[in-house]
Amino acid sequence: MTSPVLTVDNLQTHFFSEKGIVKAVDGVSFDVNRGEVLGLVGESGSGKSITGFSILGLIDPPGRVIGGRILFQGQDLVGLSADEMRKLRGRRIAMIFQDPMMTLNPVLSIGTQMVETVLAHENVSAAEARARARDTLGMVGIPSPEERLAAYPHQFSGGMRQRVAIAIALLHRPDLIIADEPTTALDVTIQSQILNQIQSLSKDLGMALVWITHDLGVVAGLAQRIAVMYAGRIVEIGETNEVLDRSAHPYTLGLLQSVAANVPRGAPLKAIPGMAPPPLNRPSGCAFRTRCAFATKICETEPVLESAGTQAWRCFHPQARRAA
Question: Fewer C-beta neighbours within 10 Å, C or N terminus of the chain?
């Protein structure tokens, strides 16, 4: 059995403020294998993006990784210098951000940005770098890639700009890609096209992919496994069909019940009551207990991660879905 491309072990990323310590990521663990897509799902503020930024070494003060390990092909990324991370970031580990207009330089042509990305990490000629940029644009479905190299970001539609961002991430055929809600702002047709391409590229190129999203519908058809985050922790993880069909954690169940496709036509959606607890004032024990219909006295103590087969959950009442 081959080793995972990425292993995150008890990762802890905290932000230190005058009012207290925000435990944005609090003991997160998972791994991703070559050619596998892991969906990291949860509400805004659950710690998904901070987990991705922690892997890439992009946490700015007052935040920092205070504990745990991030093993990338056996190498612990925690504690690497900025120069050491820079050599990995973009070449062997890439990230696709949510808004390409925030990551693409508006005053440089697409070709210039892609060629510079290649030359920053590899000692190749400008002509070779340009040919790779052209071929990669074609790979992600951009028509007339040679001509489009001369275009600027504002000359592309939103879907095409996102394809460019994906192409830049693929330039070095990285071993790992972190995708932070890259299709959220796109219409469903373009979103579907990009998801299909990402899935094919991950399989064909053997890349490991962490897909961060709040949309269970997206990862249902994309990811082989799903990890559900709440209040900085993974509360459930397992193969996609297990998590979606036999949810063990009430929070996962709540997310599923808020999807229109999972309720009868015309029936109201069952929203999760209340709001996520403030980062500086999380309840003791299970952080979800103040919103949970199954909470009992025991939930005031910290639940441990339990498992059955390939599925694991952090809950005292894993029979929640059957009871519902």
Answer: N
17-30 burial by CB neighbour count: b if 16+ within 10 A, else e?
Answer: eeeeebbbbbbbbb
What pLDDT, on a 0 to 100 scale, did the predictor assign at position 309? 87
- CATH fold for the domain made of 6-92+172-323: Rossmann fold (3.40.50)
State pLDDT tens for residues 59-97. Answer: 999 999 999 999 999 999 998 999 999 999 988 999 998
Instruction: Read off the pLDDT of residues 271-324 as tens digits, 9 standing for 90 and up.
Output: 888 888 888 888 889 999 999 988 999 999 999 888 888 999 999 988 654 444
174 in Cβ contact with 204 (< 8 Å): no
Q: At 288, list the tokens.
A: 């979800």
Torsion (CA) 237, 36, 119, 59 in degrees, nearest 10:
0
Please state the domain extents for the chain.
Answer: 6-92+172-323, 106-171
Please state the φ and ψ torsions of residue 146, each to the nearest 5 degrees: -60, -45
Environment class of residue 150 by beta-carbon count within 10 Å: exposed (0-12), middle (13-18) or buried (19+)? exposed
pTM: predicted TM-score of the whole model, two decimal places:
0.90
Instruction: List Cβ neighbours of 54 (8 Å cut-off, separation of 6 or more).
Output: 11, 13, 25, 65, 70
